[in-house]
Amino acid sequence: MTPQHKLLAIKLIHTIIWLVFVVAIFYVLYSGISGEITLYTWLAIAMVIGEGITLLAFNMFCPLTLMARKYSDSDKDNFDIFLPNWLAKYNKLIFTTIFLLGLVLVLFKTFNKSLITNS
């Protein structure tokens, strides 16, 4: 397999994984807004927190980005993923903000519900 094919494979896998996390993040937000908090909400929260721990362990880089770096010397933010460059550049800021908003809403609704139930 050529380096270009390896980079293409990494970009494809990276994009699919990114999409799964974006769906999970928006599911957390939806759960927080709607109050429909289920096991899937908590699994999505755990998954995103796990990704955050992974990013911290790799100095805020996705391991796939580090793998892709072996096959590209591009200085673009989207060299390793099929996203517009502006979105790749601000990806962590945008989706961390959305996730934290959803998480706060989920926690508020969860604890507010238990306070009302215990009263």
Overview of the molecule:
With 119 residues, this protein is mainly α. The protein has one domain (3-118). The chain has helices spanning 3-34, 39-57, 63-69, 85-118. It starts with a helix and ends with a helix.
Structural class: mainly alpha
Average pLDDT for all residues: 95
User: What is the N-to-C order of secondary-structure elements (H for helix, E for strand)?
Assistant: HHHH
Strand content: under 5%
Brief descriptors of the model:
mainly alpha, 119 residues, elongated
Strand and helix map with partners:
Elements: H1 3-34, H2 39-57, H3 63-69, H4 85-118
Helix pairs in contact: 1-2, 1-3, 1-4
Q: Brief overview, please?
A:
The protein has 119 residues and is mainly alpha-helical. It has four helices and no strands.
